[in-house]
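[Q] Does anyone have a clean structure-token version of this?
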Amino acid sequence: MQDDNAVSVATFDKYAVNYAEKYFALRDYDAYYALVAATLPAGPCKFLDLACGPGNAAAYIREHRPQTEILCVDASLQMLAEVKRRLDPVELLAADCRDLGAIQVRFDAAAFCFGLSYFDDADAAKVLSQLHQVLLPGSSMLLATVAGDPGLSGAQVNAAGDKVFNFYRQQAEIEQMLANAGFQVTQAATLHSPATASVRSNDVLVLCERQ
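[A] Here you go.
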């Protein structure tokens, strides 16, 4: 049976350099990175950037909370190479978000930005459950994801035939998924997607607390 997420990861591997050049310098989400950064305890602490892409959230934390230990996790080796190019030294882990068993430490806060959009409902529930397990009780997590009509979910195919599988959800459904995984929403906002986005959509950003 085809793993749609693995197909998407292979496409991100192929276009990692282009993706990083297109999105790494974006400042659209800095105010939301600031919200999760503000929840970190004073002094040394641990931050997880899950499905990190080129490392946008990690870069913000590195700049504004330099004492923080950061772990960047992504299934795409080429995306992790882009993180290393921009943020070295930072700890990197190649892992499927659905299985974070290799992570033995627990984190004071996390960002999971736009990874949820590439998992169907069953796999999304697994990812959020894994996140719950690696976060300390009372810690914060910033979730950013693309919202939209679930009926539009499916494969997007470029001119070269490369596929990315996108799964759209409404904000209420996203918040319910978080609640089911043991997170309490503390703040939520909706933004228009960046001007550089391939498809115009709305982004839902949710700050939540691990119960």
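[Q] Thanks! Anything notable?
[A] The chain has a mean pLDDT of 96.
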